[in-house]
Amino acid sequence: MSSSVQRKRIRKDPAARRAEIVATAAAVALAEGLECVTLRRIGEELAVRPGLISHYFPSAEELVAEAFGNAATAELDRLLPAAGAGAEGPEPGTAPARVAPSGTAPHGAGAADAGPLVRLRWFLGRTVGEEYDAISRLWINARHLSRYRPLLRERVARQEAAWRGRLEELIRDGVAAGEFRTADPLGAAVQILVVLDGLGVHVNTVTPARPAAVLRMAHSTAERELGLPADALGHPESTEQSPS
Amino acid sequence: MSSSVQRKRIRKDPAARRAEIVATAAAVALAEGLECVTLRRIGEELAVRPGLISHYFPSAEELVAEAFGNAATAELDRLLPAAGAGAEGPEPGTAPARVAPSGTAPHGAGAADAGPLVRLRWFLGRTVGEEYDAISRLWINARHLSRYRPLLRERVARQEAAWRGRLEELIRDGVAAGEFRTADPLGAAVQILVVLDGLGVHVNTVTPARPAAVLRMAHSTAERELGLPADALGHPESTEQSPS
DNA sequence: TTGCTTATTGGTCGCACACTCAATAGCATC
DNA sequence: GATGCTATTGAGTGTGCGACCAATAAGCAA
Protein backbone atom coordinates (compact mmCIF):
# COMPACT_ATOMS: atom_id res chain seq x y z
CA MET A 1 0.00 0.00 0.00
CA SER A 2 2.82 2.38 0.71
CA SER A 3 5.53 0.93 -1.50
CA SER A 4 5.06 3.30 -4.42
CA VAL A 5 6.39 6.79 -4.06
CA GLN A 6 3.83 9.52 -3.91
CA ARG A 7 3.63 11.09 -7.33
CA LYS A 8 0.93 13.52 -6.46
CA ARG A 9 2.12 17.06 -6.91
CA ILE A 10 1.02 19.57 -4.34
CA ARG A 11 0.94 22.99 -5.80
CA LYS A 12 1.27 25.74 -3.24
CA ASP A 13 1.16 29.49 -3.10
CA PRO A 14 4.67 30.75 -3.88
CA ALA A 15 4.89 32.89 -0.76
CA ALA A 16 3.75 30.04 1.44
CA ARG A 17 6.09 27.58 -0.24
CA ARG A 18 9.00 29.93 0.12
CA ALA A 19 8.22 30.47 3.78
CA GLU A 20 8.01 26.74 4.26
CA ILE A 21 11.39 26.25 2.64
CA VAL A 22 13.01 28.93 4.79
CA ALA A 23 11.50 27.55 7.97
CA THR A 24 12.75 24.07 7.16
CA ALA A 25 16.18 25.38 6.26
CA ALA A 26 16.35 27.29 9.53
CA ALA A 27 15.43 24.19 11.51
CA VAL A 28 18.07 22.12 9.72
CA ALA A 29 20.65 24.86 10.22
CA LEU A 30 19.95 25.03 13.93
CA ALA A 31 19.93 21.29 14.46
CA GLU A 32 22.58 20.01 12.09
CA GLY A 33 24.54 22.93 10.77
CA LEU A 34 24.51 25.31 7.83
CA GLU A 35 26.43 22.93 5.58
CA CYS A 36 23.51 20.54 5.82
CA VAL A 37 21.29 23.16 4.23
CA THR A 38 21.57 21.81 0.69
CA LEU A 39 19.07 21.71 -2.12
CA ARG A 40 18.76 17.96 -1.78
CA ARG A 41 18.40 17.95 1.97
CA ILE A 42 15.71 20.61 2.16
CA GLY A 43 13.91 19.12 -0.82
CA GLU A 44 13.90 15.73 0.83
CA GLU A 45 12.67 17.25 4.07
CA LEU A 46 9.69 18.75 2.27
CA ALA A 47 9.12 15.75 0.01
CA VAL A 48 9.88 17.87 -3.00
CA ARG A 49 12.43 17.73 -5.82
CA PRO A 50 15.68 19.66 -5.33
CA GLY A 51 14.97 21.62 -8.47
CA LEU A 52 12.07 23.30 -6.75
CA ILE A 53 14.32 24.71 -4.09
CA SER A 54 16.60 26.24 -6.67
CA HIS A 55 13.51 27.65 -8.32
CA TYR A 56 12.89 29.75 -5.21
CA PHE A 57 16.54 30.33 -4.40
CA PRO A 58 18.57 30.80 -7.59
CA SER A 59 21.75 30.37 -5.60
CA ALA A 60 22.04 27.98 -2.71
CA GLU A 61 24.01 30.52 -0.75
CA GLU A 62 20.97 32.74 -0.54
CA LEU A 63 19.03 29.99 1.13
CA VAL A 64 21.80 29.38 3.61
CA ALA A 65 21.97 33.06 4.49
CA GLU A 66 18.21 33.24 4.83
CA ALA A 67 18.17 30.14 7.00
CA PHE A 68 20.72 31.62 9.36
CA GLY A 69 18.97 34.97 9.54
CA ASN A 70 15.70 33.33 10.28
CA ALA A 71 16.99 31.02 12.98
CA ALA A 72 19.01 33.76 14.65
CA THR A 73 16.11 36.19 14.64
CA ALA A 74 13.79 33.62 16.18
CA GLU A 75 16.29 32.85 18.91
CA LEU A 76 16.87 36.50 19.66
CA ASP A 77 13.14 37.10 20.02
CA ARG A 78 12.91 34.14 22.32
CA LEU A 79 15.89 35.01 24.53
CA LEU A 80 15.69 38.77 24.53
CA PRO A 81 12.19 39.82 23.47
CA ALA A 82 11.90 43.47 22.54
CA ALA A 83 10.33 45.57 25.27
CA GLY A 84 6.58 45.69 24.95
CA ALA A 85 6.45 42.74 22.56
CA GLY A 86 3.69 40.87 24.28
CA ALA A 87 1.38 38.14 23.05
CA GLU A 88 -0.18 40.31 20.39
CA GLY A 89 2.81 40.26 18.07
CA PRO A 90 3.49 43.11 15.70
CA GLU A 91 1.82 43.05 12.28
CA PRO A 92 0.35 39.56 12.32
CA GLY A 93 0.47 37.89 8.94
CA THR A 94 2.87 40.37 7.48
CA ALA A 95 5.93 39.06 9.25
CA PRO A 96 8.09 36.62 7.26
CA ALA A 97 7.90 33.00 8.28
CA ARG A 98 10.04 32.08 11.20
CA VAL A 99 10.99 28.83 12.72
CA ALA A 100 8.60 28.04 15.51
CA PRO A 101 9.99 29.03 18.92
CA SER A 102 10.95 25.77 20.54
CA GLY A 103 8.54 25.14 23.37
CA THR A 104 9.52 27.50 26.11
CA ALA A 105 7.44 30.59 25.58
CA PRO A 106 8.85 33.68 27.28
CA HIS A 107 5.95 33.79 29.68
CA GLY A 108 6.94 34.64 33.21
CA ALA A 109 10.36 35.78 34.29
CA GLY A 110 11.61 36.58 30.81
CA ALA A 111 8.49 38.27 29.55
CA ALA A 112 9.02 41.50 27.72
CA ASP A 113 6.85 43.38 30.19
CA ALA A 114 9.07 42.64 33.18
CA GLY A 115 11.70 45.07 34.47
CA PRO A 116 15.10 45.42 32.74
CA LEU A 117 17.01 43.80 35.59
CA VAL A 118 14.70 40.81 35.66
CA ARG A 119 14.83 40.51 31.91
CA LEU A 120 18.63 40.69 31.89
CA ARG A 121 18.89 38.10 34.62
CA TRP A 122 16.58 35.82 32.71
CA PHE A 123 18.55 36.28 29.51
CA LEU A 124 21.89 35.54 31.13
CA GLY A 125 20.39 32.54 32.86
CA ARG A 126 19.44 31.15 29.47
CA THR A 127 22.89 31.59 28.00
CA VAL A 128 24.42 28.79 29.99
CA GLY A 129 23.46 25.17 29.83
CA GLU A 130 22.72 22.83 26.99
CA GLU A 131 19.71 24.77 25.86
CA TYR A 132 21.96 27.52 24.54
CA ASP A 133 24.43 25.14 22.93
CA ALA A 134 22.55 24.92 19.67
CA ILE A 135 22.66 28.68 19.38
CA SER A 136 26.36 28.83 20.13
CA ARG A 137 26.93 26.19 17.51
CA LEU A 138 24.93 28.16 14.99
CA TRP A 139 26.93 31.31 15.61
CA ILE A 140 30.28 29.57 15.32
CA ASN A 141 29.06 27.84 12.21
CA ALA A 142 27.91 31.08 10.61
CA ARG A 143 30.98 33.02 11.63
CA HIS A 144 33.25 30.45 10.12
CA LEU A 145 31.26 29.99 6.94
CA SER A 146 31.20 33.77 6.52
CA ARG A 147 34.81 33.45 5.53
CA TYR A 148 33.79 31.98 2.20
CA ARG A 149 30.21 33.20 1.71
CA PRO A 150 29.73 36.94 1.19
CA LEU A 151 25.95 36.81 1.46
CA LEU A 152 26.10 34.96 4.72
CA ARG A 153 28.74 37.35 5.95
CA GLU A 154 26.39 40.22 5.48
CA ARG A 155 23.60 38.39 7.27
CA VAL A 156 25.86 37.65 10.19
CA ALA A 157 26.78 41.31 10.45
CA ARG A 158 23.10 42.23 10.44
CA GLN A 159 22.29 39.72 13.16
CA GLU A 160 25.22 40.90 15.23
CA ALA A 161 23.81 44.39 15.00
CA ALA A 162 20.36 43.13 15.96
CA TRP A 163 21.56 41.31 19.06
CA ARG A 164 23.76 44.22 20.05
CA GLY A 165 20.93 46.68 19.51
CA ARG A 166 18.45 44.63 21.47
CA LEU A 167 20.77 44.32 24.43
CA GLU A 168 21.73 47.97 24.27
CA GLU A 169 18.05 48.89 24.30
CA LEU A 170 17.48 46.76 27.37
CA ILE A 171 20.38 48.47 29.09
CA ARG A 172 19.10 51.91 28.19
CA ASP A 173 15.74 50.98 29.64
CA GLY A 174 17.46 49.89 32.79
CA VAL A 175 19.43 53.11 33.04
CA ALA A 176 16.26 55.13 32.52
CA ALA A 177 14.53 53.11 35.21
CA GLY A 178 17.43 53.69 37.57
CA GLU A 179 18.25 50.00 37.76
CA PHE A 180 21.54 50.19 35.85
CA ARG A 181 24.25 52.80 35.91
CA THR A 182 26.54 53.24 32.95
CA ALA A 183 27.70 56.07 30.73
CA ASP A 184 28.03 53.81 27.71
CA PRO A 185 25.13 51.39 27.19
CA LEU A 186 26.44 50.24 23.82
CA GLY A 187 29.91 49.58 25.17
CA ALA A 188 28.47 47.56 28.02
CA ALA A 189 26.32 45.57 25.62
CA VAL A 190 29.27 44.78 23.39
CA GLN A 191 31.39 43.68 26.30
CA ILE A 192 28.70 41.33 27.56
CA LEU A 193 28.27 39.86 24.10
CA VAL A 194 32.01 39.41 23.65
CA VAL A 195 32.14 37.41 26.86
CA LEU A 196 29.13 35.35 25.78
CA ASP A 197 30.83 34.63 22.48
CA GLY A 198 33.98 33.61 24.26
CA LEU A 199 32.07 31.30 26.56
CA GLY A 200 30.19 29.76 23.68
CA VAL A 201 32.99 28.76 21.34
CA HIS A 202 33.69 25.53 23.17
CA VAL A 203 30.39 23.77 22.50
CA ASN A 204 31.81 21.46 19.89
CA THR A 205 34.77 20.40 21.98
CA VAL A 206 35.05 18.43 25.17
CA THR A 207 36.27 20.93 27.71
CA PRO A 208 37.18 20.28 31.32
CA ALA A 209 34.51 21.39 33.80
CA ARG A 210 34.66 25.10 34.36
CA PRO A 211 34.81 26.78 37.73
CA ALA A 212 31.87 28.94 38.77
CA ALA A 213 33.90 32.11 38.27
CA VAL A 214 34.20 31.28 34.59
CA LEU A 215 30.57 30.25 34.18
CA ARG A 216 29.58 33.51 35.75
CA MET A 217 31.81 35.67 33.55
CA ALA A 218 28.95 37.13 31.57
CA HIS A 219 27.06 37.80 34.78
CA SER A 220 29.96 39.52 36.48
CA THR A 221 30.81 41.51 33.39
CA ALA A 222 27.27 42.80 33.32
CA GLU A 223 27.26 43.56 37.03
CA ARG A 224 30.52 45.44 36.73
CA GLU A 225 29.61 47.41 33.62
CA LEU A 226 26.12 48.25 34.82
CA GLY A 227 27.07 49.30 38.31
CA LEU A 228 25.23 46.44 39.96
CA PRO A 229 26.23 44.77 43.23
CA ALA A 230 27.93 41.40 42.88
CA ASP A 231 25.52 38.49 42.53
CA ALA A 232 22.74 40.88 41.51
CA LEU A 233 22.20 38.82 38.40
CA GLY A 234 22.07 35.48 40.11
CA HIS A 235 24.03 32.34 39.51
CA PRO A 236 23.96 30.38 36.28
CA GLU A 237 22.25 27.39 37.82
CA SER A 238 20.04 29.12 40.33
CA THR A 239 17.76 30.60 37.70
CA GLU A 240 16.95 27.19 36.29
CA GLN A 241 14.90 24.42 37.73
CA SER A 242 16.95 22.04 39.85
CA PRO A 243 18.78 19.37 37.85
CA SER A 244 17.27 15.91 38.27
CA MET B 1 61.42 23.62 -22.57
CA SER B 2 58.96 23.55 -19.74
CA SER B 3 55.84 22.45 -21.56
CA SER B 4 56.00 18.80 -20.63
CA VAL B 5 55.08 17.83 -17.11
CA GLN B 6 57.90 16.59 -14.97
CA ARG B 7 57.74 12.84 -14.92
CA LYS B 8 60.76 12.36 -12.76
CA ARG B 9 59.84 10.72 -9.49
CA ILE B 10 61.56 12.01 -6.42
CA ARG B 11 61.72 9.34 -3.83
CA LYS B 12 62.11 10.68 -0.34
CA ASP B 13 62.64 9.37 3.13
CA PRO B 14 59.21 8.55 4.55
CA ALA B 15 59.70 10.62 7.69
CA ALA B 16 60.88 13.61 5.70
CA ARG B 17 58.05 13.27 3.21
CA ARG B 18 55.53 13.01 5.95
CA ALA B 19 56.92 16.08 7.67
CA GLU B 20 56.82 17.94 4.38
CA ILE B 21 53.17 17.03 3.90
CA VAL B 22 52.22 18.12 7.38
CA ALA B 23 54.06 21.40 7.06
CA THR B 24 52.34 22.16 3.77
CA ALA B 25 48.96 21.20 5.19
CA ALA B 26 49.52 23.46 8.19
CA ALA B 27 50.41 26.37 5.94
CA VAL B 28 47.32 25.84 3.80
CA ALA B 29 45.15 25.49 6.90
CA LEU B 30 46.45 28.75 8.32
CA ALA B 31 46.16 30.70 5.11
CA GLU B 32 43.05 29.30 3.47
CA GLY B 33 41.23 27.16 5.97
CA LEU B 34 41.03 23.55 7.05
CA GLU B 35 38.54 22.64 4.34
CA CYS B 36 41.21 23.46 1.78
CA VAL B 37 43.40 20.75 3.22
CA THR B 38 42.43 18.05 0.73
CA LEU B 39 44.42 15.24 -0.78
CA ARG B 40 44.37 16.92 -4.16
CA ARG B 41 45.30 20.34 -2.86
CA ILE B 42 48.26 19.23 -0.78
CA GLY B 43 49.40 16.90 -3.52
CA GLU B 44 49.34 19.71 -6.03
CA GLU B 45 51.22 21.95 -3.62
CA LEU B 46 54.01 19.40 -3.38
CA ALA B 47 53.90 18.42 -7.07
CA VAL B 48 52.90 14.94 -6.09
CA ARG B 49 49.95 12.67 -6.85
CA PRO B 50 47.01 12.74 -4.42
CA GLY B 51 47.39 9.03 -3.88
CA LEU B 52 50.71 9.62 -2.18
CA ILE B 53 49.06 11.77 0.45
CA SER B 54 46.57 9.06 1.27
CA HIS B 55 49.48 6.67 1.45
CA TYR B 56 50.82 8.63 4.42
CA PHE B 57 47.42 9.54 5.82
CA PRO B 58 44.98 6.65 5.37
CA SER B 59 42.12 8.98 6.24
CA ALA B 60 42.06 12.58 5.17
CA GLU B 61 40.70 13.61 8.53
CA GLU B 62 43.95 12.59 10.15
CA LEU B 63 45.84 14.99 7.95
CA VAL B 64 43.44 17.82 8.77
CA ALA B 65 43.80 17.19 12.48
CA GLU B 66 47.56 17.03 12.17
CA ALA B 67 47.63 20.23 10.15
CA PHE B 68 45.66 22.08 12.79
CA GLY B 69 47.75 20.74 15.63
CA ASN B 70 50.92 21.72 13.87
CA ALA B 71 49.83 25.23 13.00
CA ALA B 72 48.41 25.90 16.44
CA THR B 73 51.50 24.62 18.20
CA ALA B 74 53.75 26.78 16.06
CA GLU B 75 51.66 29.85 16.78
CA LEU B 76 51.60 29.15 20.50
CA ASP B 77 55.36 28.85 20.57
CA ARG B 78 55.65 32.09 18.71
CA LEU B 79 53.19 34.08 20.82
CA LEU B 80 53.78 32.59 24.21
CA PRO B 81 57.14 30.82 24.22
CA ALA B 82 57.68 28.51 27.15
CA ALA B 83 59.86 30.00 29.85
CA GLY B 84 63.51 29.26 29.25
CA ALA B 85 62.92 28.18 25.65
CA GLY B 86 65.76 30.15 24.15
CA ALA B 87 67.63 29.73 20.88
CA GLU B 88 68.90 26.28 21.74
CA GLY B 89 65.57 24.51 21.30
CA PRO B 90 64.75 21.30 23.12
CA GLU B 91 65.77 18.03 21.47
CA PRO B 92 66.88 19.30 18.10
CA GLY B 93 66.04 16.94 15.26
CA THR B 94 63.68 14.87 17.35
CA ALA B 95 60.85 17.37 17.29
CA PRO B 96 58.17 16.75 14.65
CA ALA B 97 58.17 19.07 11.69
CA ARG B 98 56.47 22.35 12.25
CA VAL B 99 55.46 25.14 9.99
CA ALA B 100 58.20 27.73 9.94
CA PRO B 101 57.50 30.61 12.33
CA SER B 102 56.52 33.50 10.13
CA GLY B 103 59.29 36.06 10.23
CA THR B 104 59.02 37.76 13.57
CA ALA B 105 61.26 35.85 15.88
CA PRO B 106 60.46 36.36 19.54
CA HIS B 107 63.70 38.17 20.14
CA GLY B 108 63.37 41.15 22.42
CA ALA B 109 60.26 42.06 24.35
CA GLY B 110 58.58 38.69 23.91
CA ALA B 111 61.61 36.55 24.52
CA ALA B 112 61.13 33.68 26.88
CA ASP B 113 63.83 34.96 29.18
CA ALA B 114 62.05 38.25 29.97
CA GLY B 115 59.95 38.73 33.08
CA PRO B 116 56.37 37.39 33.29
CA LEU B 117 54.77 40.83 33.18
CA VAL B 118 56.74 41.84 30.12
CA ARG B 119 55.96 38.53 28.45
CA LEU B 120 52.27 38.85 29.20
CA ARG B 121 52.17 42.40 27.92
CA TRP B 122 53.91 41.31 24.75
CA PHE B 123 51.50 38.41 24.27
CA LEU B 124 48.40 40.54 24.73
CA GLY B 125 49.82 43.14 22.41
CA ARG B 126 50.08 40.49 19.73
CA THR B 127 46.50 39.32 20.09
CA VAL B 128 45.02 42.42 18.54
CA GLY B 129 45.57 43.57 15.01
CA GLU B 130 45.59 41.84 11.69
CA GLU B 131 48.56 39.72 12.54
CA TYR B 132 46.44 37.69 14.93
CA ASP B 133 43.50 37.42 12.55
CA ALA B 134 44.81 34.33 10.82
CA ILE B 135 45.05 32.59 14.16
CA SER B 136 41.56 33.62 15.18
CA ARG B 137 40.31 32.32 11.87
CA LEU B 138 42.06 29.04 12.40
CA TRP B 139 40.52 28.57 15.83
CA ILE B 140 37.01 29.35 14.68
CA ASN B 141 37.54 27.05 11.74
CA ALA B 142 38.76 24.20 13.91
CA ARG B 143 36.11 24.69 16.56
CA HIS B 144 33.36 24.57 14.00
CA LEU B 145 34.76 21.63 12.08
CA SER B 146 35.15 19.76 15.36
CA ARG B 147 31.42 19.35 15.29
CA TYR B 148 31.73 16.79 12.54
CA ARG B 149 35.29 15.48 12.89
CA PRO B 150 36.08 13.48 16.04
CA LEU B 151 39.83 13.38 15.40
CA LEU B 152 39.99 17.10 14.96
CA ARG B 153 37.84 17.57 18.04
CA GLU B 154 40.38 15.75 20.10
CA ARG B 155 43.22 17.82 18.65
CA VAL B 156 41.39 21.02 19.43
CA ALA B 157 40.91 19.90 23.02
CA ARG B 158 44.62 19.15 23.25
CA GLN B 159 45.57 22.53 21.85
CA GLU B 160 43.16 24.28 24.17
CA ALA B 161 44.88 22.54 27.06
CA ALA B 162 48.28 23.54 25.71
CA TRP B 163 47.40 27.23 25.40
CA ARG B 164 45.71 27.20 28.79
CA GLY B 165 48.64 25.44 30.38
CA ARG B 166 51.19 27.77 28.86
CA LEU B 167 49.36 30.86 30.05
CA GLU B 168 48.79 29.36 33.48
CA GLU B 169 52.48 28.64 33.75
CA LEU B 170 53.31 32.21 32.86
CA ILE B 171 50.92 33.42 35.54
CA ARG B 172 52.42 31.10 38.13
CA ASP B 173 55.84 32.43 37.30
CA GLY B 174 54.51 35.93 37.76
CA VAL B 175 52.97 35.10 41.11
CA ALA B 176 56.20 33.48 42.26
CA ALA B 177 58.12 36.55 41.15
CA GLY B 178 55.72 38.79 43.04
CA GLU B 179 54.56 40.51 39.87
CA PHE B 180 51.05 39.03 39.84
CA ARG B 181 48.66 38.36 42.67
CA THR B 182 45.98 35.71 42.32
CA ALA B 183 44.79 32.69 44.25
CA ASP B 184 43.75 30.86 41.10
CA PRO B 185 46.26 31.03 38.24
CA LEU B 186 44.33 28.54 36.13
CA GLY B 187 41.07 30.42 36.59
CA ALA B 188 42.72 33.66 35.59
CA ALA B 189 44.24 32.03 32.52
CA VAL B 190 40.89 30.61 31.44
CA GLN B 191 39.16 33.94 31.86
CA ILE B 192 41.75 35.72 29.76
CA LEU B 193 41.48 33.09 27.06
CA VAL B 194 37.68 33.27 27.08
CA VAL B 195 37.86 36.99 26.46
CA LEU B 196 40.42 36.51 23.71
CA ASP B 197 38.15 33.96 22.07
CA GLY B 198 35.24 36.32 22.31
CA LEU B 199 37.22 39.12 20.76
CA GLY B 200 38.45 36.91 17.97
CA VAL B 201 35.23 35.45 16.63
CA HIS B 202 34.49 38.49 14.49
CA VAL B 203 37.43 38.20 12.10
CA ASN B 204 35.38 36.88 9.24
CA THR B 205 32.71 39.53 9.52
CA VAL B 206 32.73 43.24 8.95
CA THR B 207 32.22 44.69 12.39
CA PRO B 208 31.82 48.36 13.30
CA ALA B 209 34.94 49.88 14.82
CA ARG B 210 35.28 48.94 18.44
CA PRO B 211 35.85 51.36 21.28
CA ALA B 212 39.12 51.17 23.17
CA ALA B 213 37.38 49.69 26.20
CA VAL B 214 36.42 46.69 24.10
CA LEU B 215 39.79 46.33 22.42
CA ARG B 216 41.37 46.37 25.85
CA MET B 217 39.06 43.76 27.34
CA ALA B 218 41.71 41.07 27.47
CA HIS B 219 44.14 43.53 29.00
CA SER B 220 41.74 44.72 31.66
CA THR B 221 40.63 41.20 32.46
CA ALA B 222 44.23 40.24 33.04
CA GLU B 223 44.90 43.33 35.13
CA ARG B 224 41.85 42.66 37.26
CA GLU B 225 42.48 38.96 37.73
CA LEU B 226 46.18 39.35 38.40
CA GLY B 227 45.91 42.22 40.81
CA LEU B 228 47.68 44.67 38.53
CA PRO B 229 47.04 48.40 38.40
CA ALA B 230 44.95 49.60 35.47
CA ASP B 231 46.97 50.16 32.30
CA ALA B 232 49.79 48.01 33.65
CA LEU B 233 49.59 45.91 30.51
CA GLY B 234 49.64 48.80 28.09
CA HIS B 235 47.31 49.69 25.31
CA PRO B 236 46.66 47.49 22.30
CA GLU B 237 48.25 49.90 19.85
CA SER B 238 51.01 51.29 22.03
CA THR B 239 52.97 48.05 22.03
CA GLU B 240 53.19 48.02 18.26
CA GLN B 241 55.15 50.23 15.95
CA SER B 242 53.23 53.32 14.89
CA PRO B 243 50.88 52.79 11.96
CA SER B 244 52.08 54.42 8.76
C1' DT C 1 76.06 -4.91 -11.96
C1' DT C 2 71.91 -7.21 -10.27
C1' DG C 3 68.21 -7.58 -7.33
C1' DC C 4 64.74 -6.09 -3.99
C1' DT C 5 62.12 -3.21 -1.21
C1' DT C 6 58.74 0.22 -1.29
C1' DA C 7 57.78 5.10 -2.36
C1' DT C 8 55.17 6.79 -6.01
C1' DT C 9 52.21 6.81 -9.86
C1' DG C 10 47.99 6.58 -12.83
C1' DG C 11 43.67 5.37 -13.20
C1' DT C 12 39.07 4.25 -11.46
C1' DC C 13 34.99 4.10 -8.62
C1' DG C 14 31.18 6.02 -6.03
C1' DC C 15 29.27 9.82 -3.90
C1' DA C 16 27.30 14.51 -3.05
C1' DC C 17 26.95 18.87 -4.54
C1' DA C 18 24.86 23.14 -7.42
C1' DC C 19 22.95 24.36 -11.48
C1' DT C 20 20.07 24.16 -16.05
C1' DC C 21 15.93 23.44 -18.75
C1' DA C 22 12.30 21.42 -21.34
C1' DA C 23 8.19 18.89 -20.17
C1' DT C 24 4.28 18.25 -17.13
C1' DA C 25 0.27 18.76 -14.31
C1' DG C 26 -2.20 21.45 -10.42
C1' DC C 27 -5.52 24.67 -9.86
C1' DA C 28 -7.88 29.09 -10.26
C1' DT C 29 -10.52 31.37 -13.50
C1' DC C 30 -13.76 31.77 -16.86
C1' DG D 1 -16.18 21.67 -18.12
C1' DA D 2 -12.57 23.86 -20.74
C1' DT D 3 -8.48 27.04 -20.59
C1' DG D 4 -4.21 29.14 -19.32
C1' DC D 5 -0.78 30.29 -16.09
C1' DT D 6 2.97 28.56 -13.61
C1' DA D 7 4.49 25.64 -9.77
C1' DT D 8 6.71 21.41 -10.00
C1' DT D 9 9.02 17.59 -11.94
C1' DG D 10 12.60 14.64 -14.27
C1' DA D 11 16.63 14.12 -16.40
C1' DG D 12 21.10 15.50 -17.25
C1' DT D 13 25.69 18.35 -16.79
C1' DG D 14 29.94 19.28 -14.60
C1' DT D 15 32.80 19.64 -10.45
C1' DG D 16 35.39 18.10 -6.44
C1' DC D 17 35.85 15.01 -2.95
C1' DG D 18 37.89 10.47 -0.46
C1' DA D 19 39.09 5.96 -1.13
C1' DC D 20 41.14 2.01 -3.50
C1' DC D 21 44.68 -0.72 -6.09
C1' DA D 22 47.70 -2.68 -9.50
C1' DA D 23 51.72 -1.22 -11.94
C1' DT D 24 56.06 1.22 -11.91
C1' DA D 25 60.62 2.96 -10.92
C1' DA D 26 63.91 5.02 -7.45
C1' DG D 27 67.61 4.03 -4.80
C1' DC D 28 69.79 1.06 -1.47
C1' DA D 29 72.18 -3.34 -0.60
C1' DA D 30 74.40 -7.40 -2.11
Automatic annotation (TrEMBL), chains A, B:
Residue ranges of the HTH tetR-type domain?
15-75
One Pfam family name is: TetR_N
GO MF terms here are: DNA-binding transcription factor activity; transcription cis-regulatory region binding
**Superkingdom, taxonomy of origin:** Bacteria
Return the InterPro entries for the record.
BetI_C (IPR039538), Homeodomain-like_sf (IPR009057), HTH-type_TetR-like_transc_reg (IPR050109), HTH_TetR (IPR001647), Tet_transcr_reg_TetR-rel_C_sf (IPR036271)
| Assigned keywords, A-Z | DNA-binding, Repressor, Transcription, Transcription regulation
Renumbered to this chain, region (Disordered) spans 83-111
Q: Which residues bind DNA?
A: 38-57
Which protein is depicted? TetR family transcriptional regulator
Q: Which organism is it from?
A: Streptomyces misionensis
